[in-house]
Design goal:
The protein is 35% helix and 0% strand. By secondary structure, it is mainly α.
């Protein structure tokens, strides 16, 4: 399920739907085709709805299971797992480089 929309394209889409009643009707009736004509491709079904004065739609995100990364993937991203690695950065907390009260970087 993918629908990648550039934020500016989304803003342009909403502005066109608000200013062009025919475009909005097409978007509500045939969203996938209308989006494709607007340059936005989707590989999933799309339903476009519009809030009214007496009905508001609350859209919940899809339940997507994200796999937990392996220790190797974590280490490749942030460094060794389960071991203290001092980079002597502002957030260093190892005993060798412990920050002292009054340090301007603390």
């Amino acid at each position: 399920m993918t629908l990648n929309i550039d934020p500016q394209a989304f803003t342009d889409l909403i502005a066109k739907a608000r200013s062009d009643e025919d475009f909005k009707a097409d978007l509500l009736r045939n969203p996938k085709e209308t989006l494709a004509a607007f340059g936005i491709e989707a590989d999933t079904d799309i339903e476009v709805v519009q809030n009214t004065s007496d009905k508001v739609y609350l859209v919940l995100p899809a339940d997507i299971a994200f796999p937990s990364p392996s220790d190797e993937e974590v280490e490749a991203t942030v460094g060794p797992v389960g071991r203290s690695v001092c980079s002597q950065s502002y957030s260093c907390c190892c005993e060798k480089h412990a920050m002292v009260e009054g340090d301007p970087l603390v």
